[in-house]
């Protein structure tokens, strides 16, 4: 059905183009998104008070949609903090260090451990949890510090975060923006995450070994060195626990999360239900370990760790909320906030634009896939990875409406591209956690990651074309 496009549609599209232009120039887009919300509200309500109220209400709407994701990340960071301070994190990964005997085993071992850890603890806390313990072992067997940083980075901020199958923060954002169930986006992302992960890590490892043999490898070490990052052994010595107790906790905590994963499969928990199970488990672990470690100060310290976790969560998602608020207006949020102001038969601004595009532009699978990869990569240029994936979801919905198929694959492709670029593999200021732990220059780490990630994106895009 041909929908009549109105000024609302054109203004929304103009702001999307403007936002993408700013992202290319590496400028912040939060203010522009607020102006976009205000402008759309003014056109819809023809009321200054209505448009001003719409800005605030859109923030409330976006926060309600994102609150589960913000809370789970905050709680996991809070739990990670007590595990680092007590040294339980060291005990959790120490059995794995005996298998790291060669540079190759160190690279792939650190990467796989980082990937699994990041599924449950998020990549930045994951770097802190395992970096200080595994890095000295890796360097001792001949893996350069920069190689260890690459492994942690590509497997954690790349593979684990782009799929995000346990916490499900990334697929929640993109699925909501695309108007799809979270499970559909997650399922569609599996082959793309596998291809992207395999191609990128194999190319990165091959290039590292090649340059080491040629003698052209530069480690990019900085004076801060190992042990200065958030997971340093200096911080982990602040609270001492008996070795036997730490050993028991190091066994029990992974078993609890393994039980959560088993429960997800048995009870068919997905999305918010799966997140709630992980989050509740993390809260209980946080409370138990804090009470054991701090004893009489346990009540106060539990609150202190929660505050620290929530400060981290809202600092990360502060710039995401106004951006997500704008892109939610492309779907159901617009009618909820501004009433029935779209034409009869409209299914949302983005969907209407997609139908119009299909009627006037000969889009095909290849053009759609390439455009989604480029769009996702551009949204990642701000170094967040999360702030722009709502845009990727909206564009995927628009293109899928035009092509007539492939909404889940296009959405997943945009998510993978956005997070690999912005989540912490190519943008120097997003690489700081891994670079700080390993004592290497974040710009050198970004330079090392560039070719493998670009090759991976190209191959993944080709695969996505065949999957649409």
TrEMBL record:
It comes from the Bacteria. The keyword Membrane applies. Keywords: Membrane, Transmembrane, Transmembrane helix. The chain crosses the membrane at residues 6-24, 31-60, 66-88, 100-121, 127-143, 188-208, 248-267, 273-293, 305-329, 417-438, 450-467. This is Transporter. Coiled coil: none annotated.
